[in-house]
Amino acid sequence: MKKLLVIGCGGVASVAIQKCCQNSETFPKICIASRTRAKCDALAEKLAGKTKTKITTAQVDADSVGETVELIRRVKPDAVLNVALPYQDLTIMDACLKCGVDYIDTANYEPEDTGDPAWREQYEKRIAEKGFSAYFDYSWQWAYQKKFEEAGLTALLGTGFDPGVTSVFVSYAKKHYFDRIDTVDILDCNGGDHGYPFATNFNPEINLREVSAPGSYWEDGRWIEIPAMSVKRKYDFPEVGKKDMYLLHHEEIEALAEHYPEIRRVRFFMTFGKSYLTHMKCLENVGMLSTEPIEFAGRKIVPIQFLKALLPDPASLGPRTVGKTNIGCVMSGMKDGKQKTIFIYNVCDHQACYRELGSQAISYTTGVPAMIGTALVMSGVWKKPGVFTTDEFDPDPYMDMLNRWGLPWVVDESPETVE
Ligand code: NDP
User: Is 107's C-beta closer than 6 angstroms to any atom of ligand 1?
Assistant: First the structure.
């Protein structure tokens, strides 16, 4: 009987775990482990009697390789799904290697302490070599390629929606719709309203770091970086309507540029309302988004972590969020000598997600693909030795599972394009 160890028990984990429990054939046994065990126990209690999956819980500080190794040795899972924070990616990968188990996550590594001199040295080198300055990139995890290959283990990186599903949309388009893809615009629209003046839809610290950073995109073999929020477009999203969207740096651009050299340009856009942008700018201007520790009342605090404590917990937004998300990829290229453009997207309704699992659509659209990627690795369908992103496997089984497990997709063959 296969066993999965899930590390983390926040908004995304709650969806991923509940979806695993709907899919008990693939996930007969799960251990939920996190820093705060009470959250794992509360979820296990919520699921008791509603699933055939046998659930156990544990406490772990996944910043410690030793503690994580000890947990894996005790639980003896076939794979570990990391839905804690990107800060823990490398420690959990190290622990998986030591214990000989497969690894899956939803977001690429970034350090908690961006002032760490050893990390900073490599970061400065990467900015100089590659030309984008986001705190997160794939280099740290791609460096594990040989170790996973030699151990005969699979590491599947970034199986959320974006990254994750969006990269599968690209490989699916390449397989079924194009001889050559020239441009990809990844569009992430959240048309939901939670009624708060300001809140983030997933972990505030990770979210605000991402959206306040300079934007960047890949064009003609190089990165082009732009000031944060300086490129704005309008798009009429099916089932959501017209929204302003802004060009951001995003991790799947890096993987697609590496694995699909034929693609001339890859951009990522996310929609933001006026209130969100005004609050974010103000918080940034007063220093609240800083990741550098400061002295306060005799102790060190990190401003963005303090801000996180003040903001609503994303997991609590479910009951009050109404509206829909629309996330997908507009792709142009050639098929049989003719120019072609398609938009593959999913629409997800916040309230429908809440009715099904008690979560809003951002956690839902991330947690479902986390379950799907894990299921494909554990069942051997997406199993090969090494470190991979979701664009490096056959997309068909993943696309079938999206339809089956709550994220149906649409292919529009005459979509609006992005200027
Ligand atoms: P939350 O903050 O809601 O949950 C994080 C969980 O990880 C909490 O249970 C937290 O424990 C636990 N955790 C944090 N540090 C440790 C540690 N050292 N050891 C063990 N457990 C720890 O985050 P989300 O659920 O919103 O996000 C989870 C992941 O999903 C993030 O990596 C995020 O970047 C990613 N994500 C990916 C997306 C995609 O589309 N690819 C989209 C959205 C998110 P505690 O309860 O004690 O705080």
Answer: yes
